[in-house]
Amino acid sequence: MFRGLMTGALAAAVGTLAMDLVWFRRYRAGGGQERFAEWEFADDVKTWADASAPGQVGLKLERAVLREDPPDALARPTTNAMHWMTGIGWGAAYGVAARLFPRVQGAAAALGPVAWLTSYAILPVLGVYKPMWKYDRKTLGKDFSAHMVFGLVTAAAFSILSRGLPGLRDLVPGVASRRR
């Protein structure tokens, strides 16, 4: 199970980066000027009002733990941490499920849509998103397609990493070749 968790987490880091490249390409096509590293690591987030949905969830968590509003200086690192932890968490869950139930890998195309749909179920309850039906089709379609990229790339990376490529044992403890 640990092997699945670690392999899934690593695969999801690749999937998250792939999804972010989709969003970045769209950002640049829309006239955005930031370089990828600036955009990826939320250089423009200076206050909590600037934080994206993952950052807003992080704000709510920090408020619950600290019992006070965290300083604006935490908005950017929280936004980054929550974004990456969300993607990696989905991959870790996928990896564990794939190890426990090998047929899960056959349903790899569902990972992105499940993550997408879950965000539209949970984030409105948290007050971070509007209910799904209040978004236009174009917005939902862009979000869905980016999550599809996340899911498919994560599942493909998991499949490749699970085969135990040379040198992988040093990168992910417990991953061994499955040659038969």
UniProtKB/TrEMBL annotation:
Domain of life: Bacteria
Keyword Transmembrane tagged: yes
Membrane-spanning segments: 108-129, 144-161
Keywords: Membrane, Transmembrane, Transmembrane helix
The protein's name: DUF1440 domain-containing protein
Species this chain originates from: Microbacterium koreense
Lineage: Bacteria, Bacillati, Actinomycetota, Actinomycetes, Micrococcales
